[in-house]
Amino acid sequence: MKALHGEGNSAESMYIRYAPVLLSICLRYCGNIADAEDVLHDGFIKILRNLSTFSPRANGTFEAWMKRIMVNTALNHIRDHSKEKKFLDIDPLTERISNEEPEGTWFDDLAGKISQDKIIEMICELPAGYRTVFNMFVFEDYSHHEIAEFLGCTENNSKSQLSKARGMLRKRLYQFYFKQFEPDEKANRQS
Amino acid sequence: MKKQTDKVDDFFRKSLQGHIVIPSEAAKAGFLKEAATLEERGKISRKWYFYLSAVLLLVSASIGLFMSRPVQEMKKTSSGNLNSLVSGFHHDNKAKTGITVRPSEHKITERQNRVSTNLIQKSDNRKHQECDKKNVLLAQTAIVQSKEFVKPETYSNIIITYSSTNPPEEPQAKQQAVELQSTVFTKPERKEMTMMDSLKIQQTKSADANLAEYSPAGNPKHGSGSNPKNWNIAIGVYYAPEWMFNTLEGEKYGNNFGIGGTFHFGRYSIRTGAGLSITKGTNELAINYNKYIGNYNKLDSILFAWNETHTKLMPTFFFSNENVWDSLMKVADAKVVKRYTYLQVPLILGYDFWQNDHFSIGLRGGPILSVLLKTEVLSDNYDPGKNKIILINRIAPERIQINWQILGGINTTFHFSHRLGFELEPEIRYYFNSVYEKSAINKKPWSVGVHAAFIVSL
Fold this sequence. Notes:
Mean pLDDT of chain A: 78
CATH topology of the largest domain in chain B: Porin
Distance between the termini of chain B: 76 Å
Largest sheet of chain A: none
Order of helices and strands of chain A: HHHHHHHHHHH
Strand content of chain B: 35-45%
Oligomer: heterodimer
Number of domains of chain A: 2
Shape of chain B: elongated
């Protein structure tokens, strides 16, 4: 209760309870732990300042409300830090990304065999534009229209970025799978 | 429009469910430091309202005292002048003067009365002695001086009487005094006047009204509100029960009490003060939890040691107790009763449209500032037992820190005496903002109540 009231050691208890989950979100958006911790800090300060405005009827659950604040803080952080780069308008990838799925059932076999940290690492390796669109579309469930409105780009740009992000991640997953499990598969087949 | 699902999206979404990253200690320390600063700022800003309220009260009291001071000084100065007039008059006459000062009404202070009485006695003893011109002129001068401190209309009603040259015996001497208007003093032909037996100051009925304003009680009566200088200050204690409507919890009852000061200015008044408003509120909570199922002894490790006696390896088992909770999340409703204490600072303007000796009726209206002082939990807090709490949602939000209201009421005041009185004021309040920090109710709260107060005029 104190966490919701802003009394006593509430800030600390709130931080201990929610920071790990929220830092995961920040890391997905920022791509590195240093920026993610900065965003987490700013986001928590916003949460503390706006605790009195939280209403379950208007904002849903407390955790969902915090997540929204954290996502918005992360997006603002990315937007502020990419003003010079204009990352959304420039496609930093020079490699060719194929949307064609590699053959085989490797993708289904991969489920449960890859750690969460590795998955996060793959997301973090995406270029900022791809990463942002992918996170907003997949995890925050934004539509392309909303993403375009928020990021100040066109819907087609958003769709293109998402498609490229998917292709890139698929490729990374494929590389990971065949690097880790293919020798075993070959051995099994030989035996 | 339904989104197209993609295998990659689903894979990442499912894989990252429940993913956490533990923040570094440096990040945690940085946040806690800033959170402490924020909390401190919040406390300071809350204190700021107390200081503001205190300053407002002090300023109001100072203005009231400052404005009341000139009249008191005027009274003292006026009576002092008259005393000096009479004393000087007597001294210069070498006990040859007879002056009758009859303070028939309240205009002349008691001190003046005493001096006048002495002079009457002395005049009786020496009533046959002559009064020279010097004394008359002295009296003229003194009265002119006193004129500066007496309202012109009052002065015009003062009648100064000269006795005849051979005044009759006491007590008829005073009765047979020949009344002369104050203008007589200016006539030069009266130089030959040999004796002034008495100086009689009377007040007419019209003067009574003027005198009433200088009465110790100072209550505005007898239609004295029309006189612009008719004012006083009253302090009192009040209690005002209040029924509030348009709240999340339905009708609410509140108690307001405190001290107040009223500055009366004729028919008009300004009331301020400081009071406490105490109300109870119920906070509804929706608590998501996992039910506690039980516990078991978890085998942490087994240590095998060679036993020489039995010539075999003897195992030692190490266990730890582990609790088990149901994975199904349940929701419990809990209610916490709290008491909220607000500091209230009113600024109420008033107009009495009907007044008499013991009773007055008027209108009152003005803003009230409420600042939340403290919140106390009256009921027991929710006890989750061994259940694991996942989330606590507040259904009824917390009370707002600062609230503005406007009040309107009809005031009836009963005056038991010049000093004591009792106020009864049915009133209605409109709240400019909700009493909650975040309310789903669009309608603004309002309330009805009765303001009852005992007042003492200063």
